[in-house]
Structure formats: structure tokens, C-alpha cells
Amino acid sequence: xxxxxxxxxxxxxxxxxxxxxxxxxxxxxxxxxxxxxxxxxxxxxxxxxxxxxxxxxxxxxxxxxxxxxxxxxxxxxxxxxxxxxxxxxxxxxxxxxxxxxxxxxxxxxxxxxxxxxxxxxxxxxxxxxxxxxxxxxxxxxxxxxxxxxxxxxxxxxxxxxxxxxxxxxxxxxxxxxxxxxxxxxxxxxxxxxxxxxxxxxxxxxxxxxxxxxxxxxxxxxxxxxxxxxxxxxxxxxxxxxxxxxxxxxxxxxxxxxxxxxxxxxxxxxxxxxxxxxxxxxxxxxxxxxxxxxxxxxxxxxxxxxxxxxxxxxxxxxxxxxxxxxxxxxxxxxxxxxxxxxxxxxxxxxxxxxxxxxxxxxxxxxxxxxxxxxxxxxxxxxxxxxxxxxxxxxxxxxxxxx
Length: 401
Known about the structure:
- The chain is an alpha+beta fold.
- The chain has helices at 3-13, 18-31, 50-53, 145-156, 191-198, 224-233, 236-239, 251-266, 268-273, 278-299, 312-328, 343-354, 364-374; strands at residues 34-38, 41-45, 63-67, 70-76, 84-86, 89-91, 114-116, 128-130, 136-140, 163-167, 204-205, 210-213, 218-221.
- The protein has 13 helices and 13 strands.
- The strands form 4 sheets. A 4-stranded antiparallel β-sheet has the order 1-2-4-3. The chain has a 4-stranded mixed β-sheet with strand order 10-9-12-13, with helices on both faces.
- The longest helix is centred in the last third of the chain and has 22 residues, at 278-299.
């Protein structure tokens, strides 16, 4: 067996800690086995039985499968760079695409309470929390498009003096979202500790944003689409800011755009990037660029998605658009066109970026570092590209539409 080829194949498939690289090469040479990678899994091609190898391998999820007449073992790697809580215990496991024909399926948020002016229940009967200055804390990632929505609405609605923020590290590895320094409320180092502080036996993904209630010491919500609606109205009497990005008269058109853009574009880029079969990737890819073509055609004659009024639908789309050319084109293989190649979307994106206070919510270091460094199953070297150069500050001319 060629040990050099074995090392090369391992490096292509996974980026383990240095101690595991050394151990894997020693195992590969000693047992004359071949290492193949498959997404976040490693496949060992060997005639040896599991008891022979198990003292040497961190086998977590063991499966036997035939491979060209040779018994092979498939097991989860040590470093999958995501993870979830199961009954309050952290497990470093990636998304399961095998049961969905290679398709990425996002889990629903686990906390769905609601902020209201007086603490009354939310619009669908959700438990209500009273909107009060200084009571709430927002945990976000500057890389995450979902968390970015909440930072934008915090800025638009004048909530920066009333809701403080903690930003997680750009790097998300075997412990999921982590803090570069202990977070200020409890001194936690990991985001999953915030979840178990709220619910010790919590099961589910550990995501951002998280809106935390310091008074009752629990999570109000980890659903970005609902947090921005709370921010839109709950604090109006406190701030005097009555700008409305979800006006009653435009509910139908806003919901129509949200329902169209979320699966095809917002989540569509992830469906491309996290697909583990060619068919799943091509389906998501086709839907994504068909939707972008539709949006570009609409923006040729409409300044915003809902016409002349800027709404939440625009800001929900913006957080995907602003990341597209920097990350999704290359990293998620969304490379049919760049946003820069869409004349109307490009100008529209620039106008939103130039809106007062928005540029300071965009951090391209965090955006590129997180995706390219953290997603080792997609970019095993962890190399972060220097480019591209983005045109965001020149005239947008959207006021002529």
C-alpha cells in the first residue's frame, strides 16, 4: 500500500487535529487499509473486522457495507463542525442527508415565545414577554444570514441602547458556536451552554440568533423571522420609532415573497452547499437561479419587492444577497451567475447596503472566515480566499425605478 497516497486521501476528505493525522497514517500503513472520504464520513476499506480496528479508531456510528467484495466500515469522523444537543448532552454530529436522498433539510427552531409591549401573548397564542429596556440579550454570529436579520432590525428600530449583543466566534468547530471570550451573562464558553441554561434537557440544534431574557433566564426565541417581527413593533412606545417593515396592508404580498424566497434563495444556497448527491444539488441549483431571475425581472420595474415600500421581505433577502458573491458562488457551488451579473439585483443590494446603519452590520471577515474555515467537509484545507472585490458603495440609481 502507498502510504503517501493514503495520507493525501485523508487530507482531502477530513481535517483532523494533528494527533489524529499521525495516528491515521500509522493505522493505514500497519493494517494496509485505504481511507476514502464521503462528506463528513470516512470510509475504511479493509478485510479486518471491527474488533481488530476499534481500539485504534474513534468509531461513533459504525455501519458495515460491501465495497467491491471487501468488507468496509463507515463511521462518523471526530470533527464534523456542527453538532446538536440530545437531552442536554452535546454531540458533534452533522446534518443527516442520507435519509433525505442527499438533500439538506433545516430543523425548525426550538424556542418560539414572543415579545409584546405589555407582555400579552403573541399573535398565535405564544407565551408573551414584556418589551423592556435592558432586559434582553441577543446572541448572534456576524457570519450567519439568519442572525444578521436581527442585527439589521435592532439597528433600523433604534434598539441598540436597549438590547445588548454578544457575537460568537467566526470559527465553528467540534463544539459548535463558541465564544472567543466568555460571554458576559454566565461566563459560558460555548453557545450550547446557553441552551441548557434555559432547558437542561434540551434536544435539538444549537443555532443563532438567540434572544435571551435576563429576568426569567430563558430563551425567548431562536427563530429569526419571528424576532425581527417582535423588534418591528414591540418597543415602539419605548423608542418612539414607528417605522413599520410589516405593514398590515402589505401582509399578503410580503408573505408571498417570503414564502417564495426562503426555500429557493435563503435556504436554497444551503441546499446547494450541503447537498450530498448530484441530483439534490442540481435540483436546488436550478430552483435558486430560477428564483434569482424572477427577482431580477421584478426589480426592473419595482424599487422593492413589495413595490415602493421597503419591507421585511427585502431585508430577509438582503442577508443572503450580501454573502452570495463572497461565499456562496464558490463555497456552495452557486456559480451560474454572481449577484454582480444581475443588473437590477446588484443595484437593489447596494441601496440596502447603503441604508443608514446597515453597512456596520456587515462583516466580511467573519462571513468568509466562518464558511471557508468551519465547513471542513466542503473545504478541508480551511483556506479562506482573499477576494472578491465587491462594488457596494457606488451609486445604485434605484431611485429612478
